[in-house]
């Protein structure tokens, strides 16, 4: 009886990791699988580990070939596959127990050609999200396609997926030789697929090897490695130009932010002038060939780095990258230029430097300016609800901001002043007296206005951080409303207080008078 799924595992000199990988495949809750292990000319004895699995588990098969690289080794394994579905695992990685069951179940239910899921990295500090995949798999998306969800341009690995094997064969998919063989195949598969399923489940654990290893990731600063990265990306560009030209800007935008960031790091880290020159010979023309509509969508600091890379300005590139890593570009001095229609420019390194003649548009942050305002802690103490948080305008230097806070009742839109204090760096502490809200029904939203010298101001709602700390009196009359993570900071009445409207008595009159007095008070922070 043919297996439901075939998993292809090429390996070459990974004796330290192969056992854990194969054990994770043997432990899959989807038991109807076959594992084709392809020994790609290993010399470190890891073939003995593979032999052991083949001897004691009939689902494991071992084949050997001369060392050709992971692409040809995978192709050899595909030729031996008998399963209805196809998957790939690298020999130094780990597959969670339910991964293939979840992916295959999705394909069986939807009829899609590909099912893919989330990825985490195995590091010396533990598991962490994969930056390449972290934003793609937050919720279920069934029967979608890369032309409708262009974020899938980042999903260019083949091992966090299960493919319908008939689909793979129909489109003649095959891995090229050399490094970075995943991207040309993964993107081509996304384009050719009729439908794709995305699952929020973590289906793959991608290992970050210790220093001194020989992984592709660790060698990515070498000129030969960079040359193969550029060649693979050129292949993807050419494929999209022919089959899906509308996706080319999305690809080039990703190349500019992800791949050329890696290449720029290699350029600036190269101490040998000859190595740096070779890297620039590869990177500068490739960066120059990116679509301008994609470049225009990049943040200013990325446009600046790209301009410097295109023009082989390696020393200046190193300084800008150093400034970014030190946080100096996240909080920059901004300058307004223009009269009737003005723009805002960030004073990143070399801004206004006439000798270097950098174009002004690489410093233009007008479209990036945004309000960032969050409550981090809510505490009821001494009869008041205290809210601690921050508010600033990005990417503006926080120390130059001034804040104003108030509440807005959602139903009536009534604005209600509150007491607050501010600190350098956009920090604030606000206090809400229940008496101030005695006449309202609620709930109330916290609002803020941030002002920067020079005329820049933004106002809007304050949100909550994802994991906001709460403390204080459990019987407090006011509380921050429970809602979705990072939602608006909404204050609600927990219970009616004695003497509030509708309860009568002198206490009610006193509460209302206290509210009026507090509402007339102008806070020191305002």
TrEMBL record:
Residue ranges of the TM segments: none
Region annotation (Disordered) ranges: 494-526
Pfam families given in the database record: Glycos_transf_2
Sequence ranges assigned to domain Glycosyltransferase 2-like in this UniProt record: 6-166
MF annotations from Gene Ontology: hexosyltransferase activity
CDD domains listed in its UniProt record: Glyco_tranf_GTA_type
InterPro entries: Glyco_trans_2-like, Nucleotide-diphossugar_trans
Database matches in SUPFAM superfamilies: Nucleotide-diphospho-sugar transferases (SSF53448)
Protein name: Glycosyltransferase 2-like domain-containing protein
